[in-house]
């Protein structure tokens, strides 16, 4: 493969939205990529291309990277690689061919795009004080009841009443303007800079995107009660643990902002606009701007019992198919793109039971880019908490502040882990435990191979490239589909006659 220059850090110029320059880059200690030639991978007999034959690894304090063909390979892998030297170029060419054939981008830029640093250009502003505005009292739509019974009472219904959204909606403001959208974006930026701790800030940013996603992931196109993006989630369901405690609680920053300034728009519209702000601000060079795709007019649902049962559980591979492909009606490419949002944020044992980050550290967990997909291939993932409901995957190298994590639903995008009861290592021989069994790759005949191909496509041509265009393009398309599910009367920004939609 072509050797690409090392990525450099640079500051982003201030955007046109009157906010400070965004401190977005990958951490300077991020491990550099290399090709790892693993000829002993388990190969599915029916596969026509050896996907897992070549994987990518990054070096760390315990693994010295060979800078050229004349240097020695890592000491812990001498026994495995000595017999594979004669096949190095063949294996390398196999991965290169697979990535090139699968990628939607024909060529990869030779030079990296500039990346800004993490450090803001000014001191954080004090945490704002919100004045909670009480909700107006609504007049009843029917007369007050009397003690006199009617002679002909209404009979009980013989069937389930139709689903009806009766909560607030953005039509109360008559118009969702571009300036209102930009104001939300600026307020999210202000709030994030009040959080100096990067671990807490990454949790805040990822939590906003998770809130919007959990609102639309309960959509069921086959149900008379479809739900979807309607400003409602079940706070008592395990699938939503953490949201009512740290993202949408009475003392939470995001809810305080909404109740102080934005109650005239629906929660559903506010959540999506806020998530769009996070995605823009954390994308490289602020390039993933979803403003032109945003629509408004969603009506809130005040209660959504049973909605948590539709949010995918992280335990089984079928959950991705049942939720995204089945009930939501999306494609594999959409599902894989939406899961790429795991590049920001982190899991908490106190909430979901899953502790750690999907990427290298808390700094990287504030950057919305393709690293999530690289991590699926780059590392030796092995099971953690086997036999428990919170079983997931981690690495041997442990950072106490930023333990590494992948969920079953993440690994399922590439590896057929269920065929071996999760008892395997994604890099045979590199795991302290489960080292004897390689997690198999899906065969060409398996429908989930489409997911694996999408992962490779979103890597952008090669592991060490800075090409995020395939991921950003696919994510935009998937996000627009997901945030509009169940609505056919939404309006673009500055379409100011949409109030009649809800009359």
Question: Notable features of this structure?
Answer:
503 residues, mainly alpha, two-stranded antiparallel ribbon, 28% helix, globular, disordered N terminus, disordered C terminus
Describe, in plain words, how this protein is organized in 3D.
With 503 residues, the chain is mostly helical. Helices cover 28% and strands 4% of the residues. The protein contains 13 helices and 6 strands. The strands form 3 sheets. The chain has a two-stranded antiparallel sheet with strand order 1-2. Strands 3-6 form a two-stranded antiparallel ribbon. Strands 4-5 form a two-stranded antiparallel ribbon. Strand 4 (382-384) and strand 5 form a beta hairpin. Helix 2 crosses helix 12 and helix 9 (332-339) crosses helix 13 (469-483). The longest helix has 19 residues, at 198-216. The radius of gyration is 25 Å and the shape is globular. The relative contact order is 0.16.
């Amino acid at each position: 493969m072509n050797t690409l220059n090392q990525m450099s850090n640079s500051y982003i110029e201030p955007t046109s939205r009157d906010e400070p320059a965004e401190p977005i880059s990958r951490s300077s200690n991020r491990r550099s990529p290399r090709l790892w030639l693993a000829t002993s991978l388990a190969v599915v007999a029916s596969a026509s291309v050896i996907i897992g034959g070549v994987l990518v690894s990054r070096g760390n304090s315990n693994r010295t990277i060979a800078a050229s063909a004349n240097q020695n390979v890592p000491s812990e892998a001498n026994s495995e690689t000595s017999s594979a030297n004669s096949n190095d170029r063949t294996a390398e060419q196999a991965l290169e061919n697979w990535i090139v054939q699968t990628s939607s981008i024909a060529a990869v830029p030779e030079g990296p795009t500039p990346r800004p640093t993490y450090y803001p250009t000014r001191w954080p502003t004090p945490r704002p004080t919100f004045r909670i505005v009480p909700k107006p009292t609504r007049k009843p739509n029917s007369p007050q009841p009397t003690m006199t019974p009617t002679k002909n009472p209404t009979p009980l219904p013989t069937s389930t009443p139709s689903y009806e959204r009766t909560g607030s909606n953005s039509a109360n403001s008559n118009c969702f303007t571009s300036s209102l959208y930009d104001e939300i974006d600026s307020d999210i930026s202000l709030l994030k800079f009040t959080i100096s701790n990067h671990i807490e800030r990454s949790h805040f940013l990822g939590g906003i995107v998770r809130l919007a996603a959990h609102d639309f992931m309960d959509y069921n196109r086959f149900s008379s009660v479809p739900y979807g993006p309607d400003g409602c989630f079940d706070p008592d369901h395990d699938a939503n643990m953490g949201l009512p405690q740290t993202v949408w609680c009475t003392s939470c920053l995001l809810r305080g902002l909404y109740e102080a300034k934005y109650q005239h728009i629906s929660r559903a519209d506010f959540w999506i606009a806020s998530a769009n702000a996070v995605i823009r601000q954390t994308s490289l060079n602020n390039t993933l701007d979803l403003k032109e795709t945003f629509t408004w007019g969603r009506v809130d649902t005040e209660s959504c019992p049973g909605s948590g049962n539709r949010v995918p559980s992280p335990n089984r591979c079928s959950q991705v198919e049942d939720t995204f492909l089945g009930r939501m009606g999306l494609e594999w490419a959409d599902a894989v793109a939406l899961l790429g949002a795991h590049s920001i944020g982190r899991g908490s044992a106190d909430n979901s039971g899953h502790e750690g980050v999907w990427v290298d550290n808390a700094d990287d967990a504030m950057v919305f880019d393709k690293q999530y997909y690289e991590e699926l291939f780059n590392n030796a993932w092995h099971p953690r908490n086997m036999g428990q409901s919170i079983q997931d995957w981690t690495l041997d190298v442990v950072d106490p502040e930023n333990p590494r994590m992948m969920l079953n639903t993440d690994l399922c995008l590439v590896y057929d882990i269920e065929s071996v009861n999760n008892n395997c290592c994604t890099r045979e021989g590199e795991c302290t435990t489960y080292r004897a069994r390689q997690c198999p790759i899906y065969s060409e005949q398996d429908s989930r191979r489409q997911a694996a191909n999408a992962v490779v496509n979103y890597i952008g041509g090669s592991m060490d490239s800075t090409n995020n265009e395939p991921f950003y393009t696919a994510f935009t398309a998937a996000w627009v589909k997901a945030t509009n599910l169940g609505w056919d009367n939404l309006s673009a920004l500055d379409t100011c006659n949409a109030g009649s939609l809800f009359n």
